[in-house]
Structures are given as structure tokens and as C-alpha cells.
Design goal:
Distance between the termini: 36 Å
Largest sheet: none
Shape: flat
Radius of gyration: 20 Å
Structural class: mainly alpha
Strand content: under 5%
Number of strands: 0
Amino acid sequence: MRLQKDGSPMESVLLGNILTAVVGIPFLIGSLPSLSGWVNLIILGVAQLGLSYVFYSEAIKHSTALEAVLILMIEPILSPVWVFLFIGEVPGKLPMIGGAIVIGAITIRFIARGLSGKPIALKYAAARSLFKRNRL
């Protein structure tokens, strides 16, 4: 998707979802959902996945590749938080520590980028080229 930054990454999203549906169809044959199950699947497919992919496809045009990957890492990290808030299941210490590390790294990166006024990836590229010139 990042390679299509100047184009339309929605084609990749659409193709990925079609491929996922085709791969998942054999697992559906044994146990079809009820009517309420179909309604829930449609709502989740359109609202939860559909809208998030539309927003992500637009946002990726304005971020670096590393930031795009870090944004995707937030969802599985926050899943235990949502389960705790809505169901009351308390996650263990290790998931909380791992989640804090990832969310902290993402937060620090975005704060640093905001303070500098330019993408951090450009700073790293400049530092690497300067390091290589001084080393040779």
C-alpha cells in the first residue's frame, strides 16, 4: 500500500479482502450463521473493517512507511484494553508491559516528528549518509 502513496491504495485493500473472503468460504460451509449473525457480520464488515480501511488508505498517503506499520500495531495492542473496558477481563502483567512499550514507542516517535516539523525518516537518512561519508 505504501508504494501506491500517490495513487489509490484502495485497490490493494479491496483485493486483500476479496482474497480473504475466498479463502474463508470453505470454513463457512460447515456452520452457517443465524440471521442475527449475518447482520452482525455485515455491520462489523462495513463499519469496523470498511471504514477503518478507508481512513487508513487516506492516512497512509501522509505518513512514512514505518509510521504506517506502527499505526497497524496499535490495534492488537489495544485489544486487551477494549476487552477490559467492555467485558471486565483483566490482562496479565506481560501483555500490559508489552503494550506499554509499543504504545510508548509510537507516542515518542509521533511527538519527535511533530517537534521537528519533518518526517523522522529524513533525519535518519541524512545521518546515515553523513556517517558513511565520514567513515570512508
